[in-house]
Fold these 4 entries.
Entry 1:
Amino acid sequence: KIPEVNGDFYGLGKTLSAEDREIQLKVRAFMEEEIRPIANDYWNRAEFPMHIIPKMAELNIGGLIYKGYGCPGKSALLEGFIAMEMARVDTSISTFFGVQSGLAMGSIYLCGSEEQKQEFLPPMQRLEKIGAFGLTEPEVGSAVAGGLTTTCKREGDEWILNGQKKWIGNATFSDITIIWARDLDSQQVKGFIVPKDTPGFQAEKMENKMALRTVQNALITLKDCRVPESLRLQKAESFKDTAAVLRMTRAGVAWQAVGCARGAYEAALAYTNKRAQFGKPIASYQLVQDLLVTMLGDLTAMQTMVHRLSVMQDEEALLDEHASLAKVFCTLRMRSIVDHARELFGGNGILLEHDIARFVADAEAIYSYEGTKEINSLIVGRAITGHSAFV
Ligand code: FAD
């Protein structure tokens, strides 16, 4: 008898309360029933399945950890499990959701005024309003902290935005985009909620990506784009506030890496039991088992790490370096796991229909976004040595 495929070898899912576990399993069912059958097709066509948004809204997981404004006020631990469940089937869908619920809603939740929160968070929680987060620029990626070139200038009750943003997920169809820009007067970074129909705001779809093809990334151009003071994030005073949003979401990216790796491991384990060569399932060969066990060891280490990370977040003990270490470690191990999985599929590993090719490609995007391996390593390096290698 072939044992059941289960990438949660140490049973970490069982540490959730019965109510939270039910939510986790509801998300799993949604991903298996609604997303898995269409994931490769949408990825191949580089289109986003807009029709799934109302069904996803029924899960009531938008803004999961926020308190008030119609948000469920759940733990960061459950939020991590949900990111993993989504990425386990389709990393593009977990990215769409991470941008909406983490980066866009998180910016408003942490940096918005009471009125802004009341206006934007409830419809975003219900996924009726979609958000995007515009920080990276064509010429400024890792160095955003001191190097933003997009500018804002106050003129009476309005701000004028000029510049470009690159890679902005969801922004081709989002109702609002959070734009981070440098104030020409104070030189500090400020944040703005920019509605899509604002004159001077233009979002153009980025084509020809070889990873996360389902996610719609945009190149945004802001040309004398006028935004009222009422849409400036009232509590965003400097880049420190932008960084607080990223601190909150980076842990989620580590969980996404776990999900991508888990999806690949589970697919490989099932496949090696089904695929026979030399008259026996390939899972019965020692070299194949060694590879599977190496993958499982890495996967289990990743899961226990992010589990502890989220508990620390719930205890309000999470520091930048904690999240950065998990992002570095988990994305590195994810890359290795998807690579081994692809190997175990032989030629089928490069065919989209077996899912693995998609996992291998998508891993490359998670590896780079929300801070590359080098940048997150330098954040940890600074914390443990006391020396900043950035300057
Ligand atoms: P660069 O900064 O140009 O780095 C290139 C290389 O140089 C990297 O290996 C980097 O580690 C290395 N490097 C740079 N500085 C140093 C240093 N001091 N020491 C050592 N090595 C260094 N951004 C958003 O604002 N919103 C989004 O929604 C969004 N979504 C994204 C989705 C995808 C699929 C991708 C790929 C990116 C997305 N991004 C988004 C941008 C993402 O956060 C950046 O790609 C990332 O921060 C890295 O910046 P970069 O690509 O410009 O690389």
Entry 2:
Amino acid sequence: TVASETIGFKAETRKLLDIVTNSLYAEREVFARELVSNASDALERARHDALARGEDPGRLEIRITTDDADGKTLAIEDDGRGMTREELVENLGTIAKSGSKAFLEGLDGTNEEAAANIIGKFGVGFYASFMVSDKVEVISSAGARGDGKAWKWSSMGDGTFTIEEATESDGAPARGTKILMHIKKDQKHLVSKWGMETVLKKYSSFVGFPILLNGNRMNDVGALWLKDEKDLTDEESIAFYRLMSGASDMPPFRMSFKADAPMTIRSLLYFPAENPERLAGIGGQSSSGVSLYARRVLIQQNTERLLPPFLRFVRGVIDCEDIPLNISRESLQDSMLVLRLGQIMAKRVLKFLDEKAKKEPEKYNKWFANLGFFLKEGVCSEYAYKQELAELLRYESSATEAGKLTSLRDYANRMPESQQNVYYIVAPSRQQAESSPYLEAAKSRGYEVLFLYAHIDEFVMQHLMKVAGKDLISVEAANLEVDEKSEDAEEALDESASADLCKWFGDDALGGKLKEVKMSTRLASSPAILSGHEPEAMRRYRMVQTMASD
Ligand code: ADP
Ligand code: MG
């Protein structure tokens, strides 16, 4: 046998453990959610691996044992894929989990409230066990994948952990993992049978494997996405969303979509209220939030290239019977089936949002204010969905009240007959849009102007180009249509009377910086504007392009 070895945690892990064990007092119960979700992940993988080899996955359970007599220990055991010695060292000695990383990055000083908030949102994974334990032992056997031995990882949550061969009395499962927690004196109440019942109901009632608490079945295993929409309770649905996404918001919309042709699909998708990238740093793009299943077997969590990247904010499960179980991760990426499935689902998602936008406009607009960015990104990046996405965009305009939004279609329907184009103005705020001289010409003709507050909006307009057959035109651009009357008026302008003023502007005041200075009837109350120049965002874009090609 290999002698026991004591290894130091990586610096980052040590820092995390230190915070978890010493300063987090709120929401300690989330340790159960974290450990059960790890057990469930390991079971999913064991089931998948066995089925892909055409083998029977055997018993797949999570067994939780409390010690009500003196509340000193709590054991959580699973029949999952287990861990080899190397995996124990690697997986439990370093922080790979994005949640834990986000947790560390999101900490500001010693602000406990913020920490508790983040832990609720992301969790800290396995290390949460140290919130309630003085010592944690992980006894694991990797079954056929391993060396035939069971290994024991143990730590007091201080700077080091020890790894050694497990003994008979450690009671390792044949394949799987047992987490034995030695409970802190003041946390006994949490780990009593009653305490665990409460916590498990709250966090884990729909886990896809049986959970036995002291031998009694706790949950009825049901893949929520197979249920009919009408049989879904809000409570279980929200709990499912939260466990799956690690988020803590209330998703305003959920979509339960089922089809039998052209593919057999069962899906349950959620639209978060909060932008999941809000906490990510600059350039921090989150990964896909959708997991791919085939007949209730997990194929891959957070499947990239299933839905198009701009739909990465969508959370949930897509289960498709047509996907073969033994599909490899590599072939997933260029599988025609997965591509086709992704296209069907993307169209469905956009159709669903369109229905919501029409049926519950207030709720939709509120959602759009937070998440609309992703749809705008879609307009700019994904040609295939442009038309559907155009229907989903919402903007303030000169005809809406502050804070109220209009669709492009509604704008087009309001257009007077004389109006040829859809107009927009780019401005950082409503106030600035309203006081812009560029607005005047359109307004004086009774034309509505869309207010675009975000940089991306101008690119959105340039990618869309047309809506309802009308060109999208910036009021800053020179080709603002001029009606007959004002053309006459322009001709009637006495050029000679203003020649001096024009000359002074062009030659003296702005010496040589202007191509041409002329009189116009375009403005009503502002004395002058620049025209014929490139709009702001385009100028910046051109600059970036020039820099990139240099
Ligand atoms: P995450 O679950 O996000 O990866 P955790 O800190 O919860 O992060 O767990 C770290 C890693 O430890 C997991 O990715 C997994 O590889 C391993 N692990 C944890 N618990 C188990 C378990 N019960 N069975 C098998 N592997 C596990
Ligand atoms: Mg985990």
Entry 3:
Amino acid sequence: LVMEQQVKKDLFDTARKWVLEAGKTIRDAIDQPLTIDTKSNANDLVTHMDRETEQFFAEKIRAEYPEHFILSEEGYGDELKSDKGIVWIIDPIDGTMNFVHQKRNFAISIGIFQDGIGEIGLVYDVMNDILYAARRGEGAFKNEKKLLPLKKELRLEEAILVLNNYWTTPNNKVEDSKMQELIRKIRGTRSYGSAALELAYVAEGIVDGYITMKLAPWDIAGGMVLVNEVGGITTKADGEPINMLENNTILSCNKEIQETLLTDYIELKQ
Ligand code: 2AM
Ligand code: CA
Ligand code: CA
Ligand code: CA
């Protein structure tokens, strides 16, 4: 099934309106005390704002689009066994650690997928009031400005890559010596602490790729649609397609360097 243009436009406009509204609520409360809990470990944080923001979207979606599904981080979504139908993949605050420590560098991320295909992507840099937005086949935008197709003939020597230090030190997912070799090869590295923003920056062309070894669907759903719309590519770190119902390793980059990264630098363990 293909989503009709006008249906997609209406859905996009509604999602965009809700994202901006949720963002304003967060901005208005940014200096209020936070209730901070931990999840899987002491550094895995969640606040009442993560939960309330997700609830805000879940209530809106269930009232307006009762036939749609929700896949989201904080537990107010649905238990999905399949990617069929229209699925809102939501991260209410991506970069919670930044939200707590820095009060900036976090985003609301929403990807709207139909039968596993990303149709709409929204990544909202809340504190800077910058909305990255895309509809499949219609380009990606940073606020009003249309993003350009990614550079052709990019060389690895001129690339800036987003790499989290965790994956460049000994770990059980990826060969760190190869990652260190990669770091010496490229022009520079960056790490922003919000996967959604990091994918938006790939789409904007201000970084040339993003390599990471464990992200949930809600971290990547919005950003993937953005990257697709400027001619970039997002796969697992072995080049295989991403499964939107589970965690994935991620390589998102300019196509010009994808092959080299996959064959020469990313060596997965096990
Ligand atoms: P979060 O802030 O929504 O939890 C930080 O490098 C990035 O990784 C953020 O996008 C963060 O999302 C995400 N992240 C943090 N812990 C994670 C985990 N255990 N599994 C997958 N993604 C995680
Ligand atoms: Ca989290
Ligand atoms: Ca996240
Ligand atoms: Ca989150």
Entry 4:
Amino acid sequence: QRKMILDLDTGIDDALALAYAVADPRVDLIGIVSSYGNNTLEVTTQNALDLLHLLGQDDVPVFKGLPHSSTTDHFDVMQVSKDIHGDNGVGDVTLPHAPRVAETTSGVDFIIEAAHQYAEDLIIVPTGPLTNLAAAIEKDPAIAKLIGDVTLMGGALTVRGNVTSVTEANIHQDAEAADFVFKNQANLTMVGLDVTLRTLLSKKETKQWRELGQKGEIYADIFDFYIDAYDRLGIDHRGAALHDPLAVGIAIEPTYATFLDLNMEVTVDQASGDYGRTIGDNTKLLDGTSSRAAINVDVARYTRDFMDLT
Ligand code: BDR
Ligand code: CA
């Protein structure tokens, strides 16, 4: 079992990443760090608590991350996030309320403590902006080499972005933090739109969850909202993307994907037109590889395993 921290901006696909990590016997989920992103930090933290309650996991601690990027003093939820994830982040479905609140330790300090405690046994899977991880590395630079793996959902190298033509949403929320993480974190795997837009789920699959009782009904209602949004907004009429659960899957089972080893530094552009673009820097070639990007995925095997587990 690998120790895993999920850093979530819950979020419909984040909600599925959580269910997947909870269900996978190879994962020891040691804690959740919440992030602003698909909604405000208050809302995403509560969603994580409530979903864990629904999943019968009230003993998994939830730590609050940072409420906005370090380059701003506030955060506004993007309209596109509301369109895709609903006003409450989980498809406007009302969740049973968790009987507890988040821990008092900050998410940033939890990441630092866990890195020292578990070192190479620790996998961190950020599925929102990289603000929390960047802040943790900035506060304690030693952790960048201690953490076993960071497998993040974010970016786009070989396909268009989903915020602008070159920018993916998680990176776009905080390009400065993403750039810092790409430059400093060892053993980094990028699971971007290159692969996540290939793993789609349709109502044929969510219908199967409805046979699993209350938990399945709620998850099906949440995901159907997301499928309808993809259809309505013309993103994809075949189904909706398993962005965040694919990052969890690849973190545990890298053979789902094929990778491009980036033997150069990845940089995240910050100029206004390109803000948030993930791209290699050919002036900074590295010996060996520090990061890699998933560029293809075994869709059939991944989605079958995903359905078997959830
Ligand atoms: C990413 O952005 C968020 O809206 C999703 O939860 C996912 O993490 C996709 O670009
Ligand atoms: Ca997310």
